[in-house]
Structure to design on (348 residues):
């Protein structure tokens, strides 16, 4: 990482003495000023109510603001510093040890919900959604928020192998209900469980032997090489490695390590008779490899790739080993969506 120019540090200090601290992570004065404003607002909002005197409150504010700016200067992600991240209309709590929600994940979750709302009728059977590798629970909770306005009968289950993640997902359910961002019915219709998603016994016991309509997953999909060379320093140093890199090795010489989760996720989808499967990927190259895996199975009628912003732009078509693949949206390849014969109706 290149060194900061002294002139930039002086400019920052002339505006606010804390900006040079934030510049170590932001590298840009405008972004540093925005982050200082957000951190300042956060400190004001979280000030303890027991501080009654203005002098004490001022001392607390300056000490706490400096403390958080120092943490940010060391590369700690802003979401961990502030403790939350907007995700659609929700406020998702963020804690070290659990992956921070990304805007691209929000975009495809919202797009999927919009497609389901266009096709699924309010008087239809309960829509059942399985969210594997749920993390903060952001996908499950936003999906419920968007669907529950029109679909009264939902059953959404988020599963993660990390107890830390499931604990935070449950906190996020409670937090967003208490804030009024989610209706109280979420308590009965959204659940989170600790489980290894690839252990059939655990999966079957938690799914109650019923079929799932949609299986969605943001699994670990970063290769060790990409993790070391391409991910941001704050991601490598602060976010959980297990949520980014598959802990399992490839089961085939023809599969790269970063693709190792996808055949097993598709196997879970097939065993639970999921009508639609939605799998987040790292880029277009990985999306194409997942498409190739899907086309080897007779369980799926077809599939397509969504870019970062699937609701924007036009549809293009690519030929992959003789297969015509539709690609929607703008940005990088982000999601592979597959459907069975009965699943097409959910996406029309």
């Amino acid at each position: 990482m290149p060194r900061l120019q002294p002139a930039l540090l002086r400019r920052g200090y002339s505006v606010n003495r804390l900006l040079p601290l934030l510049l170590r992570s932001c590298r840009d004065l405008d972004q540093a000023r925005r982050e200082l404003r957000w951190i300042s607002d956060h400190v004001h909002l979280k000030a303890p109510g027991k501080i009654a005197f203005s002098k004490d409150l001022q001392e607390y504010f300056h000490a706490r603001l400096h403390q958080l700016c120092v943490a940010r200067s060391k590369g700690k992600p802003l979401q961990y510093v502030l403790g939350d991240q907007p995700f659609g209309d929700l406020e998702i709590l963020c804690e070290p040890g659990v992956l921070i929600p990304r805007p691209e994940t929000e975009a495809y979750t919202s797009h999927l919900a919009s497609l389901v709302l266009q096709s699924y009728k309010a008087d239809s059977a309960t829509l059942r959604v399985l969210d594997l590798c749920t993390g903060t629970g952001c996908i499950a909770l936003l999906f419920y928020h968007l669907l529950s306005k029109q679909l009264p009968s939902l059953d959404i289950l988020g599963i993660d192998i990390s107890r830390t993640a499931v604990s935070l997902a449950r906190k996020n359910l409670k937090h967003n209900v208490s804030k009024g961002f989610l209706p109280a019915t979420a308590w009965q219709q959204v659940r989170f469980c600790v489980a290894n998603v690839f252990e059939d016994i655990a999966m079957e016991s938690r799914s109650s032997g019923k079929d799932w309509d949609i299986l969605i997953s943001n699994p670990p999909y970063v290769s060790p090489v990409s993790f070391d060379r391409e991910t941001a320093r704050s991601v490598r140093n602060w976010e959980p490695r297990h949520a980014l890199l598959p802990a399992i090795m490839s089961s085939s010489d023809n599969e790269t390590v970063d693709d190792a989760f996808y055949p097993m996720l598709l196997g879970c989808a097939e065993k639970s008779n999921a009508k639609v499967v939605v799998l987040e990927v790292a880029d277009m190259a990985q999306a194409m490899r997942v498409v190739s895996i899907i086309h080897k199975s007779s369980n799926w009628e077809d599939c397509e790739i969504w870019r970062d912003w699937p609701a924007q732009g036009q549809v293009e078509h690519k030929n992959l080993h003789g297969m015509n693949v539709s690609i929607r949206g703008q940005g990088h390849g982000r999601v592979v969506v597959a459907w069975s014969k009965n699943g097409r109706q959910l996406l029309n």
In short: The radius of gyration is 22 Å.
